[in-house]
Specification:
By secondary structure, the protein is α/β, with parallel strands linked by helices. It has 14 helices and 12 strands. Helices cover 39% and strands 17% of the residues. The protein has a 7-stranded mixed β-sheet, with helices on both faces.
């Protein structure tokens, strides 16, 4: 059944990346098969949640893990967990004044809006946001000076949305947190390496299940067993409003199995697919085209297109025109105000890349 036609929806060509506004990613075949098994069977849900987490943790080398309904839910549940520290009273009364250590320290340049503000998810979990450093920098000293007796955790955001320059590293943040007997919560929703931050001894790591892993709508919290226990018990409190269904839970298990085995598209393969696209784009008058690596350092390569001074339209106009047709073409438009548009090819096939080239030719006439 064609739901584009049934619901009168536009087709979408996704040159933006694994973005929530477009449905994130295409679910892997293994994820779909596992999801279908979940759809058609019943489980003791508490047992399923616990044992699926243990299974995934073993696959990736973590002490423990828990599958939640999104990385955003993972933020709120992690914050609630580190504030309550396993207290059942806290689960039922998450905002009680009995729990005074609620400060969550985050570098100012990482308090970003990724589709919702980081600070809103932290506040939802009962945390008080304390910003460290400045909009353009945060050193280890800036972070450490904000710690006091009311600090519950350090929070770090690894994302292209966040400030990259003059920023302390994840490793430095971990060292500071542990020096003060605090956990580090890492929002790594769109990252690709499930084991990288375990090696850095991060306490709580949050991934989106639907981005790099290509699972259904879901999230994964993994790391130190004590903290994962504290997160898991939130299902009787604020986590009830964030519960994940058996189908999506098992869908993520299947997707992780495939992801651990096959991994994401490697950079060399991506660059090989990108090369003919860059060549065709370069032939369009008014554009300067180059290959560009992801700003957050991931092995992701994109087409970076700059409007020349003699271009017939601005980048902002081009972005709008690309979206207005059917199919609607979505790009990475974060730098359109600078005259730059990025095309992410991870979800594109060669036919879709050719359609983008033809549409740009029409727009730039």
């Amino acid at each position: 059944m064609d739901y584009y036609q049934k619901l009168n929806l536009k087709h979408v060509i996704n040159a933006s990346g694994k973005m929530t506004i477009l449905g994130v990613s295409k679910t892997s075949n293994a994820g779909i098969e596992a999801q279908e098994f979940g759809d058609k069977h019943f489980f003791e849900m508490s047992d399923l949640v616990k044992k699926s987490g243990k299974y995934v943790a073993k696959l990736i080398g973590a002490e423990d893990a828990v599958i939640v309904n999104s990385a955003s839910a993972g933020i709120a549940l992690s914050v609630a967990g580190v504030i309550g520290q396993g207290s059942q009273y806290h689960v039922y009364h998450p905002y009680s004044t009995r729990f005074k250590a609620r400060n969550i320290i985050i570098p100012k340049g990482q308090n970003v809006d990724y589709g919702a503000p980081e600070e809103e998810m932290i506040t939802l979990g009962g945390g008080n946001v304390v910003e460290a450093g400045y909009a353009n920098m945060c050193s280890p000293e800036h972070l450490e000076m904000m710690i006091d007796e009311d600090t519950a955790a350090i929070f770090y955001v690894k994302s292209h949305h966040a400030v990259q320059k003059s920023m302390l590293t994840v490793k430095q943040a971990v060292e500071i947190a542990h020096r003060h007997n605090l956990p580090l919560i890492l929002d790594a929703a769109a990252e690709e390496d499930l084991k990288k931050y375990l090696a850095l001894n991060v306490d709580i790591i949050l991934f989106s299940g639907a981005k790099a892993i290509e699972g259904p709508a879901s999230g994964l919290a993994f790391g130190k067993a004590k903290y994962i226990d504290w997160i898991r018990i939130q299902s009787s409190g604020i986590g009830r409003a964030m519960k994940i269904g058996k189908d999506n839970l098992l869908g993520l298990v299947g997707a992780i199995e495939e992801y651990v085995s096959a991994g994401p598209e490697v950079g060399t393969h991506m660059r090989k697919r990108l090369a003919p696209f860059l060549k065709k784009l370069s032939a369009i008058p008014g554009l300067t085209v180059k290959e560009a690596q992801d700003q957050a350092g991931r092995e992701i390569y994109r087409a970076d297109i700059k409007m020349n001074a003699d271009a017939s339209k601005s980048a902002i106009q081009v972005v709008k025109d690309l979206k207005n047709n059917d199919p609607a073409i979505y790009t990475r438009e974060y730098r359109a105000n600078e005259g730059i548009i990025e095309f992410d090819i991870r979800a594109l096939n060669s036919k879709e890349m050719d359609l983008i080239v033809e549409r740009l030719k029409e727009i730039m006439k």
